[in-house]
Amino acid sequence: MRTLDGGMAMLYVRTVRKNYPDLDHIDDDKLITYGNAICVARSTSPKAFGEQAKKTMQELGTTSTQTAQILGSADAFCR
Questions:
Q1: Cα separation of 56 and 15, whole Å?
Q2: Residues 5, 33: Cα–Cα separation, whole Å
């Protein structure tokens, strides 16, 4: 199962902060929590990934574009 932890989690947060300043209202712990959930869902099934994407967008109150930025960044750092 893929996860987002340790140094990769810190790189993920730094990447989001650097490239997507409009997401600065989301604290680091939440970014890591939802990023890790995306990693786990991606390694489970396409359906789980889609459901997690919707959940992330609803719970963080992000737009579809912002959610895609979070998901894409998290997926790049999952190990």
A1: 18
A2: 10
Going by pLDDT thresholds of 50, 70 and 90, the confidence category of residue 22 is very high
23-58 pLDDT, tens digit each: 999 999 999 999 999 999 999 999 999 999 999 999
Q: What's the 3-state SS for the chain?
A: CCCCCHHHHHHHHHHHHHHCHHHCCCCHHHHHHHHHHHHHHHHHCHHHHHHHHHHHHHHHCCCHHHHHHHHHHHHHHCC
Record the tokens describing residue 54, joined without a space: 């919707």
Other Cβ atoms closer than 10 A to 10: 13
